[in-house]
Amino acid sequence: MERRRNRAARLFKLGRTQAEVARALGVSRQSVSRWHSRYLRGGAKRMRGAGRAGRKSRLNEGQLTRLDEALRRGAQAHGFQTNLWTLPRMALVIERITGIKYHPGHVWRLLKRLQWSLQRPTKRAKERNDEAVRRWVSKRWPVIKKKPDN
Fold first, then answer.
1. CB hemisphere CA count around 105 (13 angstroms)
2. Which helix (H) or strand (E) covers residue 4, if one does?
3. Reduced 3-state DSSP string for 123-145
4. Which one of 9, 38, 82, 137 is most buried, counting C-beta atoms within 10 A?
5. Kindly report the CA angle at 102 between 97 and 103, in degrees rounded to 5?
6. pLDDT < 50: residue spans in the chain
């Protein structure tokens, strides 16, 4: 985007019209109009982008590295009963390691930065009772299932 705006500034300097610039860069005329008004107010330097959107991360690279190493040791290494990571568990570990509290609903952003992906267990629960499930589906489910109004 920055390169496009710089190229637009060069085209404005050459005396090209807004329509010509829009066609040359493959952008909307509205965008070129905004860029042109900025260009007229202060030249190419006024056409710079606003910068990074959103709040900066509260964790620096060193903290992210330490967090990644800690999470790779597994949930049980941090005192949890099972080795299954959940977002609330991860939020707790982040706070223990860095002192910075994250809402569990936002932890996935950090995980994305660490290139972690969602994983689901492949095994069924040990406690699962297949016979009870079969009975529930055949007897209880039909009773509670919504039926269309006639």
1. 0
2. helix 2-13
3. CCCCCCCHHHHHHHHHHHHHHHC
4. 9
5. 140
6. none
Q: Tokens standing for 63? A: 């903290």
Taking alpha carbons only, the member of 48, 50, 58, 37 closest to residue 101 is 58
Locate 67 and state its tokens. Answer: 């967090």
Q: Running DSSP on this structure, what letter comes out for residue 55?
A: P
Note the pLDDT of residue 52.
Answer: 67
- Residue ranges of alpha helices (H) inside 78-119 are 87-98, 107-113
Shortest CA distance to 6 belongs to which of 50, 47, 51, 52? Answer: 47
Q: Could you tell me which residues come within 8 angstroms of residue 80 by beta carbon, excluding any fewer than 6 positions away?
A: 89
CA angle 113, 115, 117 (to 5 degrees): 120
Within 10 angstroms of residue 36's Cβ, the number of other Cβ atoms is: 20
Q: Whole-structure pTM over 0.70, yes or no?
A: no
pLDDT of residue 115: 92
Task: Return the sign of the alpha-carbon dihedral for residues 21, 27, 32, 38.
Answer: negative
pLDDT value of position 54 = 77
Residue 104: exposure state from Cβ atoms within 10 A (0-12, 13-18, ≥19)? middle
Q: What whole-number distance in Å separates Cα of residue 69 and Cα of residue 116?
A: 12
Tokens 């009975």 belong to which residue? 135
